[in-house]
Amino acid sequence: MKTHLKNAELFLKGSNFYRGVRVASAVVTPFIILFFFGYEALAPSVMVGVFLNAPGDIPGSLKRKVNGILISIGLTMLITGVILFLKPYLILLLVAIGVISFVVSLLSVYGFRASLVSFSGLLSMVLALAIHKETAQDIFLHIGLMGIGGLWYLLVSFTFQKLSPRKDNNQLLADTLQLIGQYLKLRARLLTKKKKRETLIQEALVLQTQINEKHETLREALFTERKRSGRSHYDEKQLLIFISTINIFEVIEAKHLDYNEIDRLFKDKKEHLRASKNLNKVLGNHLIVLSERLIQSRKIPSKDSLLEALSGANQAITDYVEDVKLPKARKGALVLKNLYDYQELLLQEIRSIRRVMANVNEASKVSLKRQDRSQFLTLQEYHFSVVLQNLSFNSNLFRHALRFTVAMVFAFVLGTVLEIHNTYWILLTIIVIIRPNYGLTKTRSKDRVVGTLIGAIVAISIVLITQNIIIYGVLAIVSLIFAFALIQQNYKSGAALITINVIFVYSLINPNAFEVIQYRVIDTVIGATIAILANYILWPSWEVNNLKEVLLDALKKNKNYLLATQDLYHDKKQNLMAYKVARKELFLAISNLNAGFQRLTQDPKSKQKEFRLIYSLVTLNQTIVSATASIGSFIINHKTTPASHEFDAMILKIANTLQMSCAILEGIPPNNQKDKKEIEVVEDVLLKTFKDLSDERDNNIKKGNIEINTETMHQLQEAYLIPNQLIWLKSLSENLKKATISYSEIL
Questions:
Q1: Contact of 527 with 433, CB cutoff 8 Å
Q2: Which of 115, 202, 478, 739 ranks highest by number of CB atoms within 10 Å?
Q3: What is the pTM of this model?
Q4: Mean pLDDT of all residues in the chain?
Q5: Which parts pass through the membrane (predicted)?
Q6: pLDDT bracket for residue 258 (50, 70, 90)
Q7: Domain co-membership, 495 together with 605
């Protein structure tokens, strides 16, 4: 019960419920005002304008939000006018539906916000089919009132944001902290769950993608706002928390451990890993609690559990050395020490978040120049050339637009020929369900049908209990609030609530509610069936055929990140910003690759060609990211020795191997380098440094100098970690090249 109450509190205090209240207020208020002044006949047009332009109101830059809603207002007014004027002319109307469906759906090439504006435009086309206006005067009046409704929603949205300017960003930060907490706990399980690692790694890919998506939205929201008087204290706090989440995510990524090596070193000593595993769990749970407190605005929890778990992990290193004995225990102890250092870094960032949330005055200020800040933003290109580049069957979005157009035209013709009651409900179902890939379309179809059935059953039950129109009106408003609040979090629940809302709104107009329910369910099933069949039959977009460009981008960004890490080793101060930008670009590229792989898993089994090979390509890229990040993280957080010639030679070898993989995908003959013997010599030199330091340490131990100073420990860690990571990276890059050759042969 306590957990349910906490979840209810988080939901009611969160931005999703706030959004539901905002949209419902904007929809209902015009009706109340116009009804009070006796102009209730004008209210539906205004309410339609509000409803149509709400989708584009998503978290992010205020400027982009306003521009998006204004474009949405203009687009919905134009499309509504075209459909209403052409309704008497069936052939022209059919042509208009086809053209609008294709052109407007193609707007999605301009990014997520543009896809929501596109959705508003398509929704306006369908709703226009449901509206009956006989004269030009009525049509122009309706369009004008729609525009007023859109502007009214913009005003309401702006007002709500001024009343609670922190809510959207706080929700994004809370979601990010929770996802990272879950990710940390998953990484803890990876440490010892040998048989479940493949499943856990696939779960990790999903979490990585979700975290990167949150980070991208936060970058837009926190970096693009220009404030005349500078950032406020709370803006500063949000930015500090965001930067800490970035740092935490990178540190986690930097410790994608060589689990085969860990299994070998701790084969019979798994108990010595438990303290590190427990610390990861405690850190993850603490982040989740902080995410909740950020929404609840409550006192942050005690840090005692964190310090206790950290102390346990530190003691585990000593216990391992005492159990296994030096020098045999040295490699295992260094693995535990590196793991401990990484977890200590995580704790430092978590403590930074705690200080910010506790309003500690000494919390450091953010110093980020505008030119540096802009480097972290992913700019969306809005030139018309972007559309022209996508006017090809090679473009997934082009095929989707064509497929969507055929589905819409077919559904309209089917409804007209068969004289289906409320054909526009079929079209509406297609709009909200059909997506560029088959898997998501199938999932949304199932959720839509199940949600509609649940909503219909609930509505029938209420109608059987009472015919009170006041209850219908209250339920219509309440269901509208919760529908908009849940539609992005839980589509099935959102669909159920939308169905309840539609049924009760219709029940206020038409007493025969059972007829409304009947047609709603039938039309939803028809629309979902058309959407699934269209995705499967018409120019299908199987993910196996779409991964080449995403994979190529990930390979290029991996190489760039590797070279940026090399520069960082040579001059930390001078090259830190370039390293962070390369890191950000790579994380986005890997996120896109992970997302593509997740879509592949949703395709029919018969279409998942070479699944194991593609999985290998994804995980190899991911592991290379982590291996490189572990070197970068060590360089940033430790005082290091000068980069050696051998280090540069290994980096060059790995970068060249990655470049050969790129060349293979691009169809360019790779320039194979025969430097095997030279690289073997370089490896020996790199490993010899650790051996020399180990021998020196063994001699000191024999002389009775058991204590080790910090400088010597860091030198041992550097001499062990960097050469081993480089050798591992070389092996990974060569395996990736082999996998890329196999992949290119099936294209």
A1: yes
A2: 739
A3: 0.81
A4: 81
A5: 31-54, 66-85, 91-109, 116-133, 139-160, 401-418, 452-485, 491-509, 521-539
A6: low
A7: no
